[in-house]
Amino acid sequence: MTFAQPLRLQSGAQIADYTLMYETYGTLNADKSNAVLICHALNASHHVAGTYAHDPKSVGWWNNMVGPGKAVDTDRFFVVGVNNLGSCFGSTGPMHTNPATGKPYGAAFPVVTVEDWVAAQARLADELGIEQWAAVMGGSLGGMQALAWSIMFPDRLRHCVVIASTPKLSAQNIAFNDVARQAILTDPDYHGGDFYEHGVVPKNGLKVARMVGHITYLSNDDMAEKFGRKLRNAAENNGYKFDFGIDFEIESYLRYQGDKFSEYFDANTYLLITKALDYFDPAREFDGDLTQALARTKAQFLVASFSTDWRFAPERSREIVAALVSNRRRVSYAEIDAPHGHDAFLLDDPRYMNVVRAYYQRVWEECPAKEAA
Amino acid sequence: MNFKDLSALRPDLAFIAHWVGDGAHVLDVGCGDGAMLRYLESGKRCTGYGIEIADDKLLESTRRGINVLQHDMEKGLGLFGDNSFDTVLCLSSLQMMQHVEALLRDIVRVGAEAIVSFPNFAYWPHRVALLRGRMPVSRSLPYQWYDTPNVRCATIYDFEELAEQCGLEVLERVALADGKPVTFLPNLRGSLAVFRLRKKTRTAPGTTTV
Hints:
heterodimer; A: two-stranded antiparallel sheet; about 15% strand
């Protein structure tokens, strides 16, 4: 969907004639009360669930959560997935042509924030005729968007589902993001962000960025169990190669993940999205008081975290819960004891799925009109 | 959930519910399947939260539609500010705690009033079992000694002493047997001890002490 009217961004810049890619699943009911917005994290897109007819491998990123009969049941809910501004899956982003110059935006694409994304999503909701979401839901960076919705548009959502997220990044989180950015920015193929016209991609930078990021998504235990000190080629030369190639399985795995990522992800998008993560801090304008920041919310909340997630640790989710409790908001909190670190929010765990399913039962029971339009 | 449902399901909870004021803001520490909070919300217009650590109970509470927070009570009630609640319930959970005294102090920190219940170890069938040289196994203590979640055994008199030590005023004290109050020889004939408590420093005029 294309939006002609300029969107004023938090930075002061504005963007006009932009496109947002979105997908919908299920049917909007007569009074438009069964709509659920799913917000994506760093490297995902509007393609939340299902597969495309022409490509059986194109499974949506939250296909285990969203679909017919699933926790977020598309037989009941009208689910909307949207690709955020600045991303690289069809919505207007750095690789698109800047109408002002006729060249790709590149590094000139304005820095967007979580709040900017939410403002853009609200315009999409307007166009779809959705005045109030039954729920806005997201994991990680997506959870930040859900939280921002509850603050920015308190009347436009009944439920807010915030999974494996945080009210702000820690110094450690920002540090990891900056290592990733530096890897991209210092890659000679980055060309100050204008690599498109040089016909190259800063693959090495993107690869290292993804490798660093990926480490933070897994738990120490999970990595130890999956890879340990397993060698790639144990038979030869006592297993060690005595050079700087790949000795250990974990090296091979991370490099493979990095290579794969660098083939489909845009370097400028990576920079933009990590900045959006770093900037998110709704308590900032209240001297760090999250309780005050959440005072204007009206939604009911489900907050969930995972015990081994050290990127966005359970303590961060508890801060959200404590602030909501101080405001006497309706909130439920699940702290899932799962071994998979931050990535757990994308994986199947019956305790996790069951709690979300049970919560969505309540969301469903509160939808005024249950019949499809 | 109405009062009849609650009485049928858990007569002890039905009795205790009388002590919670209409519209009270309630914290249920160890809320289990959420039946009590569900009743207080629907039957007495209460608001509030349940705390539960067990995954299966958390799920049941979520299914009942109450606000339930997964949290280990042993880690205290740091999520909540001082005097955030009108009433804090801690029903049949205290005996499972490693740090009973610390939790009790935290309970009265976050609530104006507390209602605490626990299986009365001095209930006569328990005494009989001990006289016969065996650990008691009863409806209120349904576990073998080697696999019980109850790490604390207390009688009504014992708890009274701890409450005093923690600077708490006992507003009401009732022993229940099958959900009904026992007035004659309560420490002998009651299987469940129920206390209504508040901080001694707090003065709340108009509250009657029984």
